[in-house]
Amino acid sequence: MIIDWNQIDTVLLDMDGTLLDRHFDDHFWLEHVPKRYAAKNGISLPDAKALLYSQFRSQERTLNWTDLDYWSDRLGLDIPLLKLEVEHLIAVHPGVVEFLLFLRQNGKSAWLVTNAHGKTLTLKMRKTRLGPYFTGIVSAHDIGLPKEENAFWGKLREKVPYDPARTLLGEDSETNLGTAQNYGIRFLIYVSRFSSAIQPVPSACFPSINHFTELIPHQDACRTESPK
User: Is residue 228 part of a domain?
Assistant: First the structure.
């Protein structure tokens, strides 16, 4: 995919599904949590899944959706502790480090902008060591709105000094790309290979990639090195 990087100053990147393999999150919420909930409450796994999936859907597109404290209280489980049980599944998508190095070497401001809860961020940044590659990290919980809200992108500018006309956003959520588009963010990229467990399907609405190396001009391909 050809991107005119001379027109971009700032790159906003989602975390789960975009930089990190969403297989971890899907397995955790759809399999691991129901398994632990069923054992704690003495019910069958299918019954636990039916009950929990309904509760999960009720909080979609809200901050509660990613609030670990909310789900710990709601389900009577220590959600951060349960995440540690399967943290070995946390993985960085291929090409992410190369892309982040490309952004740094070309003077772009790179921000991690995620709906993820602070406790999730702490776990995943410790596990992946991606933190030093970013100019900064912002959670929607710091903003007070999820990215599914159009108003999120305006409030984000209180923390990230970006010009929408000179900004690229990478996301695995077409909904979030849509709200960013409504706000005026110009360069929008959909990550279709959000999980290693699925067959990627390109978006019908936004330019799509499987890996971020597709956005690196060939002549600027960089070698991998550790962040300073």
Answer: no
Judging by DSSP bridges, how do beta strands 10-13 and 167-171 pair with one another?
Answer: parallel
Domain span including residue 62: 24-88
- C-alpha to C-alpha distance for 149 and 167, rounded to whole angstroms: 18
- CA nearest 93: which of 12, 147, 170, 186? 170
Residue 190 lies in a domain: yes
Q: Please indicate, yes or no, if residue 109 is contained in any of the structural domains.
A: yes
pTM of the model: 0.92
Kindly report, residue by residue over 100-127, the tens digit of the pLDDT: 999 999 999 999 999 999 999 999 999 9
Alpha carbons 162 and 156: distance in angstroms, whole number:
9
Structure tokens at 50: 């039916």
Q: What are the start-end ranges of the E strands in the chain?
A: 10-13, 109-114, 136-139, 167-171, 187-191, 208-209
Of 69, 88, 107, the residue that ends a domain is 88
Q: Report the alpha-carbon distance of residue 102 to residue 212 in Å, rounded.
A: 10
What does the DSSP 8-state code read for residue 214? Answer: G
Distances (CA, A) of 9 to 110, 130, 146, 176, 224: 9, 20, 24, 20, 22
Length in residues, the chain: 228
User: Which SS3 state, helix, strand or coil, does residue 43 take?
Assistant: coil
Tokens at 24, concatenated: 């971890």
